[in-house]
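Hi U.,

Before I forget, here's the chain from the pilot set. I'm dumping it here mostly so it's searchable later in email.
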Amino acid sequence: MEKKRILIVDDDKSLLRTLVHILTNEGYQVDTAETGKEAIEKSKTQFYHLALLDIKLPDMDGTELLHKINGHIPKTVKIMLTGYPSTETAVKALNLEADAYITKPVEPKQLLETIHKELDKQEETEKLTEEKLVEWIKTRAERIQ
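Structure:
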């Protein structure tokens, strides 16, 4: 089974190191970016199953990054992280199709539970899509014969 790839975008180097440690110990393949621009560049050349996006980045707002990466990696699960929680930011993130919203300081158990839950949903959706495609092909093949 392939390792799930996760991109963590945060300008806090200490938090990045901690999250990389936690997630690699769980068996994930992890990349990091400290700016929105770096995250966009990485996501153009690599598929990520999941992205953890900080709301406050040095070069752009995390919701702006969410909007930009949604355009070219829509199937990636996106989880927003913030040390400055507000209803307005949460609603904006969810309206921009964030899959979850977690406040800092990040509780490792909660983070892992959220990641597992969201990746399971992603896998189930992919499975259903594959099953529908197989069924469609079978139906088409039967019509041709």
